[in-house]
Structures are given as C-alpha cells and as structure tokens.
C-alpha cells in the first residue's frame, strides 16, 4: 500500500535531513580527528625530544664516571665504557637534531648544547691519560654544568610546545564532543518526527499485510486440498496440448508406469510412440485427434510397456478444455485397468473351463454306456458264451476288450483331471498304513510284471503311516507302478521304498527302465505329454497319468519329482505328511491353541 503524498514528502525531507546531519558530523569529525592526531603526534614528538635530552645528560655522566675509574685503575674495560658513552652521546645529539629540524626555535638551544657537550668530551679526552687532579676535575665539572644548562634550555622549549599541543588536543575534543552530541540530538528529534508520521501508515500497512497473509493462507489451503485430492486419486491426472506437449502430470503416473512425470514430460510424444503397443497405436492416434476435434469426451483403452518390461492395460479419459489448433489444451485421467482385464480373461477362461467340464462329463457318460456293453459282450465272446470261436475270433475278441479297457481308462483319467482342475474332487484324509497301500498296488501289477520278466518288490518299512486319501494314494502308486512296468524291459527290476524325513514321508518308485532325459523332468507332468523312447510301448497310455498324480500329491500337501537319465532307469519320489494317532493329534492341536 502506498503512503499519502504529504506523508511521503515530509517523511522524505526529514529523512534526508536526518541522513545529511550524520554526514556533516562525520566530515567535521574527520577534520577534528586529523588535528587531534597531529596534536597527539606533536606531544609524542616533544616527549621523545625530552627523553633524548635526558639521555644526553645520562651518557655524559657515564663518560665522566668511566674516565675517573680509568684514571684510578687503568682498566681497559673502563676506557671502553668511556668510549661507548661518548659515542652514545654523539648519536643521541644527532638524533635530536633530526627530530628538531621542523622547529627553528629549538635550533639555537640545541646548538649551544652540542657545543657544551663537545667541549666536555674534549676536556675528558685531554685528561684521560693523566692521573686525576683537582684542576682536571674542576674543568670537567664546569663542562658538565654547561651541558646541563644547554639541556635545560632545550627542555624548557619542548615543555612549552608540549603544553601548547595538549591544549590544542583538549580544545579539539571539546568541540568534537559538542558537535557529536548536537548532531545525535538533532537526528533523534528528526527520527521521532519521522516515526510519528509513519506510525499511522505502518498500522495501515500491517492491517493490509494481515489481510494479504490471510488470503495467501486460504489460497495455500486450497492448493493443498487440490494436491491431496490428486495425490489420493487412484489415477494419473494429466493436461496436454494438441501438439503432444504435456502441461501437467500427477505423481501417480510413476505408480502406473514406473516412469517419473519428469521423464515422461522430457521425452514428449516420443515416449508414447516408444512404449505403446503396436496394435494400439493407430487407435490411440485417432482418439487423440478426435479429442481436439470438438467431439466431446473421449475414452480409450490401450496397452503400454511398464518400466519393468511387462505390458499393462490403461484407460485414458479426457475432454478438450479450451482453445483450438496446436495450442489447444485437454485435461483427463489415466486409470490402470490391468487387473480388470485379467479378471475378465480369467472369467472367460473359467466359463470355458466349466463348459469343457460339462461337455466332458456329458460325453463321458454317453460313452460309458455303450462302452460297458462292448466290454461285456467281448468278454462273453472270449469265454465262448455264444458258441465255440476260432483262434482268430478269440484274438479279435481280446483286442476288442483291451481297446475298450484302454478307452475306459482314458475316459476315467479325463474325468478325474477335469474334477481336479475344477476343484470338484473331494479328498478324505485319514491315517493310512503305507505298507498296506504299497502291497496292494504291488499285487495289482505283480502278474503283469511277471509276464514281462520284471522283478517287482516292496521295500516299504512297517509302522510308517501317512495322512492321505486311501483311494487316491492307491491311484498315485498304481500310476507310478504302471509306468515303471510299461517302460522296464525284461530282466529289469522295480522297487517301492519309503523313508520318514521330518514331518513328511518320502515314497520312491525306482526302476531300471529306459530313463528320462533331464530336459523332460518337468514336462512329463504336463497333460497329454509322453516322452518318446525306443521301446514299442512308448506310444501306449493316455498321457494323463503323471498329470493326475502330481495334482493328487499337491492336493494332499506333498510334492513330486523325478531323478533319471537316459539308459539308467528312473526314480519317482513323492512326499506326504506323516500320519499319527488321531487322539494324539487332537491333543497336540489343543496344546497349540
């Protein structure tokens, strides 16, 4: 807020005057300080001259004492002391002449002192070789008296100068003190006038500043609220121009794509051309043109490459805000719809899966009825119920029966796998004695193994129990033993063993068959997958047995794997939880609770 023109004028004039007063005071103070400095320097000069005069007298006294001592003792040291005192006296006189060159009044007195001093030095030098006498002592005393008188004359002149210079310094100090305090008082009065003039304006400015601060706080709160809204919206808010320049991009964009807003803005349109899915680029460009063509709001779904390399689904919604041409602006939001897309895909897969299961169940039911009749009639034909058959007719009947059983096994496996994948297979886990289940499975394949000349035995220890569904455990063992018998040549051996490993029991079905290459150790558990080998039984089977076996093991809390290599046989291992007495299990659960 501007001050009133009268307040500004008077305040400016008074402030200028208040500023000029210190300037004048400082200039006067500077001149006074120079004069005071000269006065103090002159006083120091006078004191130095007076000190030099005292030194001249002192050195002459030392010379006289050294002369007397030498006359009495003829000691060389005393003569040397005498000579040093004389030299010091002459040096001090020379220094005093340099110090008093600027004072003509001091020159006659200093000349008289130097003459008296030289006279005394000559007298002392003349009397130095002879013994002390009253006549020589009287001459020396007269010379010393002349030196003292000359020094006193010079000293009097210096005292006069010192007094005069001190008086000048005191006068300067008094004038400076009056000038200083007068300027200070005048400045204070002027500043008080300025304070009175500005006080009202300061109050007005303070009120205006408070109102402005309040407005700033309200604006800041509004912006903070806006930032909080944008930060907590599960979408990226954007604002862009028709030429592809991004005006604003909220921080949530980094959560969506892995790229910071600064990286995206810096890259410009090149970022979208590089990371958009090739199949979605044409649609994205068309939607972008429609957005700025005034056709209302636009929505688009497209795929984009995330920073980690994965493809994500995004939905962009926007509306043109203002303007036309390259400078037009549009605002909108960007959502991540990857999860929704995946749910839709899973729903479609689940519907397809259910439809497939329904079809399989219906087809399997319709196939079982005629297949049961085929198996029954072929068995009756083989037994001669319709009359005697030739050898060829009996072979044909046996082939029909075997093919029917194979087809029935295929139908049963397909139904089991469908129920397992659909989660419709119910398991009843109980405590099962493993030895009994293994022996039952071995007995089922004992005749088939004996016909092939393969040794089949059980090495399962007694007393080992597992938690499993008895029927499905027998199915697991039969699938593994059936494969072992099928792919083990005559003279080979098959063994079923078990061992307790912590909280699990590991069951192993080991054979000396053709073996499996390491690259197929995982794929053999997939549906409809069989590993080719050189035996003639390679193409037999449905390719579902191991897939069903793996599902059954996993559903019962275990795992299954194979150890094998070509020509060295195979060892299929699976684990199941260790079985225990039901009452002890309940007590353990109660204690844990």
What gross morphology would you assign? elongated
**Computed structural class:** alpha+beta
Characterize the biggest β-sheet: 5 strands, antiparallel
H and E string = HHHHEEHHHHEEEHHEHEEHEEHEEH
Largest beta sheet: what is the strand line-up? 2-1-5-4-3
Q: Please report the total strand number as a whole number.
A: 12
Average residue-wise pLDDT: 77
Percent range for helical residues? 55-70%
Task: Give the N-to-C terminal Cα separation.
Answer: 76 Å
Whole-number tally of structural domains:
4
Task: Give a short overview.
The chain has 593 residues and is of the alpha+beta class.
Q: What are the salient characteristics of this protein?
A:
alpha+beta; Helix Hairpins; 4 domains; 14 helices; 5-stranded antiparallel sheet; 5-stranded mixed sheet; 12 strands; disordered C terminus; 593 residues; disordered N terminus
Describe the overall structure.
By secondary structure, the chain is an alpha+beta fold. The chain has four domains: 5-201, Four Helix Bundle (Hemerythrin (Met), subunit A) (Up-down Bundle); 236-336, Beta-Lactamase, CATH 3.30.450.20; 344-420, Helix Hairpins (Orthogonal Bundle), CATH 1.10.287; 428-591, Histidine kinase-like ATPase, C-terminal domain (Heat Shock Protein 90). The chain contains 14 helices and twelve strands. A five-stranded antiparallel β-sheet has the order 2-1-5-4-3, sandwiched between helices. Strands 7-9-10-12-11 form a five-stranded mixed β-sheet. A hairpin with a 4-residue loop joins β1 (236-241) and β2. It is elongated.
